[in-house]
Amino acid sequence: MNSKERYQILFNKINQYNSGVKGMTRVAYTNEEQACTQAFMRMCKDEGLDIRIDPCGNAIGRREGRIKGLPPVLMGSHLDTVYQGGKYDGVVGVTAALEVIKRLNEKGIETDHPIEIISFACEESSRFGVSTLGSKAMAGTFDKDKVRHLKDHNGVTLEEALSLCALEIDSIEHASRTDEDIKAFFELHIEQGPVLENENKKIGIVTGIAAPVRFSIRIIGTPSHSGTTPMNMRNDALLGASQIALELEKIAINEQKYGTVATVGVLDIQAGAMNVVPGEVEIKVDIRGTSLESRQRVLDHLNQTIELVKRNRQLEILSQEIISEEPVLLSTEITNTMEMICKEQDIPFKTMPSGAGHDAMNMVKLCPTGLIFVPSVNGLSHHPDEYTDHDDILIGIDVLEKIVIHYSKMDSKI
């Protein structure tokens, strides 16, 4: 069996765990995600790795190095998905890391440093509105009091969801590795955008990661009969929300040269009906970029718009920040090494920022970090039609293997 056939089998085994009819639904701390994590751990055990689950639910497989006491080299990503997502987001990074281990075992390569694979818990924000919880816990930045009461769409709190997985939110600080010496962390991921495909590049070498600030905004007006309420006597919460959304788009377009983007991804009309003027609407807003100054300008304009809509439409508007994260820069030494590897292997590559958040942005707090992108067909992600050709994934695995071997040598420097 060649490497491609072996990888395809591994990839398909992971993606058999799915609760969705359309696309992939394997949401954090659900039965499907937990079963998938257990399957991944069995696969790690089959490769001779020591396995454990930390107090946040991160699954970790460790391959010991030749020299005792050296700090580990880490690689990995996540197995959870959004609702009705695709097969590649996150899964590519975890399966690629396991394929690297398989190759090392097959070749009989014994590294100086230990190597660990990590499947991070709850990378996606789709269930509770907060992302990368597993890597936050590992980096010592998990704020349990801020997130414990967050609820999913069924009313289950994060604290309850953890408990159902035999995890306790008050023990999560023990997942922190801030007191540990770690050599480096590497994550392979699909691009989730169209740039590599459009420029015919096979590898994206990521220089920095944009970070989001997210808000839940409630717009409260007066529900009234659609037929008997004159247009000039309405307090329409939906129109207020729509004005906010359109203004947000306008200012984000003005900031696009800085790579800043803004999205209204949720709009929920309370007790909505065709013949009722909407009385209460909730929207959820995501603003992100690598420039804090540009992101702040969008946020300032959002706040000004809220005040304008409140006054002109006589609405009550309540804005609550869900999360605010800082953009990060990745290791220049690692990106330079990745460039060298791509040039030596004659692989077309592009250095680029990441507009999406990844576990790598939290791991920067622990150690030098590298992030490798492989192309996404049509730029699709978080979508059932998400696709990356396995030949492209294998090129990414080749780069990942080489850089992991490089940094797992005792005399390698960062």
Primary descriptors:
15 strands, Aminopeptidase, alpha/beta, hydrolase activity, acting on carbon-nitrogen (but not peptide) bonds, in linear amidines, elongated, four-stranded antiparallel beta sheet, nine-stranded mixed beta sheet, 414 residues, metal ion binding, Zn-dependent hydrolase, metal-binding, 34% helix, 2 domains, 22% strand, Alpha-Beta Plaits
Q: Based on DSSP secondary structure assignment, what is the total number of beta strands? A: 15
Cα separation of the termini: 36 Å
For the record, what is the CATH homologous superfamily label of the largest domain? Zn peptidases
Helix coverage percent: 25-40%
Any idea what the radius of gyration is?
A: 23 Å
Strand count, sense and barrel status of the largest sheet are:
9 strands, mixed
CATH C-level class of the largest domain: Alpha Beta
Number of domains: 2
Task: Give the uncertain stretches in residue-range form.
Answer: none
Question: Can you tell me the CATH topology of the largest domain?
Answer: Aminopeptidase
Number of helices: 12
Mean pLDDT: 96
From N to C, what is the helix and strand string? HHEEEHEHHHEHEEEHEEEHEEHEHEH
Secondary-structure arrangement, i.e. CATH architecture of the largest domain: 3-Layer(aba) Sandwich
Strand content: 15-25%
Shape: elongated
Category from helices, strands and their pairing: alpha/beta
Description of the molecule:
Helix 1 crosses helix 3 and helix 8 packs antiparallel against helix 9. This protein has 12 helices and 15 strands. The protein folds into 2 domains: 289 residues, Aminopeptidase (3-Layer(aba) Sandwich), CATH 3.40.630.10; 114 residues, Alpha-Beta Plaits. The mean pLDDT is 96. Strands 1, 2, 3, 4, 5, 6, 13, 14 and 15 form a 9-stranded mixed β-sheet that branches. A 4-stranded antiparallel β-sheet has the order 9-11-7-12, with helices on one face. It is α/β, with parallel strands linked by helices and 414 residues long. A hairpin with a 5-residue loop joins strand 1 and strand 2.
